[in-house]
């Protein structure tokens, strides 16, 4: 019923929303992925065997919004976990700008299945929201990744779908429609996390200008740090 209501509202507003979406796509500032190695080590001076952290996901895993991966979510999360766990954290970022969860199952998952990790964090939702991925395909993709990673002995966690209603790069009407859609996908993500006994991590980030990159869409270096701190607080307890 919730999804049906969204579709009804979107179809009714399509004459206004479609031109806005086309104009936004044409004029939006497009930032590249961050530079740097996709693997690294945080807390190298700490004792013990490194904890192995894997991130799989969309543009935020690729570090869009900052210049270097050392400033992006994966490195910030590794540093925060190393501080909390008091052990080194070896990290690997497997991300692609613009990718959906279903595409990641096909393209990214095969790249990481043979690489051992203790924790796999899946970061998806923005592209599935804007690509209007159906509920069935969204759930199937999340479930497929979670099952495959758990079979490799990894603890699996999901980051919440970002609230697109706060993305200031989008016109007001698109923010409302896409924010509503994102909340529906997040509800389904929570259900898959419960079903798969995976961690669900809320996105603890105020979407103020200082937390966003110049495109108004991706996190800034500060935004990534704050996001990572919230994730680490939850994940350190689960590992």
Automatic annotation (TrEMBL):
Concerning InterPro entries, the annotation shows: Ester_Hydrolysis_Enzymes (IPR051532), SGNH_hydro (IPR013830), SGNH_hydro_sf (IPR036514)
Superkingdom, according to UniProt? Answer: Bacteria
Where does the record place the SGNH hydrolase-type esterase domain?
56-226
- Pfam families to which the protein is assigned, alphabetical: Lipase_GDSL_2
Gene3D superfamilies in the record, alphabetically?
SGNH hydrolase
| Molecular functions per Gene Ontology | phosphatidylcholine lysophospholipase activity
Q: What is the recorded name of this protein?
A: Lysophospholipase
